[in-house]
Every structure is written in C-alpha cells, then in structure tokens.
Amino acid sequence: MPEGNSFVDRDLADAEFRNVSLKGARFEDVSLAGARFDDIDFSGAEIGRNCNFAGMTVAGVPLAELFDAYRKQKAGRD
C-alpha cells in the first residue's frame, strides 16, 4: 500500500472535496453514484473493469452515446 491516507469501509457520502490532490490515488469497489465532477484534471486517469456507467454523462453527453459513436467510427475504419 502506498504511503498516505487510507479510507477503508468508510461512508463519505455527501462529502465535498475542494482544491484537493488525489494524484496517484487508487479507487477500488467505490460507489460514485450521483457524484459530480467540475474543473477536474483526468489526464492519465484510467477506468478499469467492472464499471457501471448507466446514466453517466460527460460534458452533458450520455456516455452510452459516446461509446456507441466510438464503436461506429471504429467499425468504419476496419
């Protein structure tokens, strides 16, 4: 486990984080249902496996539509 704080089996529902660095943080078995992200740097971030994207939007666009457009564009190149 890397140095730093560890939050295991904690309920941080309705918490607010402002001007916080989570650089290099690892999230596993975490619910972000209903969370909102504004002015966030996701550069280099990776979303792995077993993720539920139901109802998620990016810049107001449903993620399902973004994935669909990506698949269609990729299929057109093959």
Structure explained in plain terms:
- The protein has 78 residues and is mainly alpha-helical.
- The protein has one helix at residues 63-77, and strands spanning 57-58, 61-62.
- A two-stranded antiparallel sheet has the order 1-2.
- Strand 1 (57-58) and strand 2 (61-62) form a beta hairpin.
- The model has no long low-confidence stretch (mean pLDDT 91).
Name the overall outline: elongated
Task: Assign a percent range to the helix content.
Answer: 10-25%
Helix/strand class: mainly alpha
**Strand order, largest beta sheet:** 1-2
Topology order in helix (H) and strand (E) letters: EEH
Helix tally?
Answer: 1
Radius of gyration: 16 Å
Largest sheet: 2 strands, antiparallel
Question: What share of the residues does DSSP label as strand, in percent?
Answer: 5-15%
Q: Mean of the pLDDT scores?
A: 91
Termini distance? 42 Å
Number of strands: 2
Low-pLDDT runs: none
Short description:
It is built from 1 helix and 2 strands; from the N terminus they run ββα.
Keywords:
mainly alpha, 2 strands, 78 residues, two-stranded antiparallel sheet, 19% helix
What is this structure's SSE topology?
Blueprint: E1 57-58, E2 61-62, H1 63-77
Antiparallel strand pairs: 1-2
